[in-house]
Amino acid sequence: MATRMNALDWLSLALVIIGGLNWGLVGALRFDLVAAIFGEMTTISRIIYVLVGLAALYMLYFATRVGSDTRADETTTTRR
């Protein structure tokens, strides 16, 4: 049985991608896109950073959920 993604899964995935791209820009070009748009360590910037961090934690849970579903599918398939 495949795991369907709900709205929280999609939102978390989008935030993690945004965070990853931002870190890529920081590492490659020393350019923090979030700080450039919202200001360096403003309240809104900090909220975005916290949301990206929470999304990453949620993605850890999501990955284990998908992984356990995949293992269950493999077990069911091999038993047939």
Automatic annotation (TrEMBL):
Pfam families membership: DUF378
Record's keyword annotation contains Membrane: yes
Alphabetic keyword roster: Membrane, Transmembrane, Transmembrane helix
Database matches in InterPro entries: DUF378 (IPR007211)
Top-level taxon of origin: Archaea
TM annotation in the entry: 44-63
Annotated protein name in UniProt: DUF378 domain-containing protein
Protein source organism: Methanolobus chelungpuianus
Higher taxonomy: Archaea, Methanobacteriati, Methanobacteriota, Stenosarchaea group, Methanomicrobia
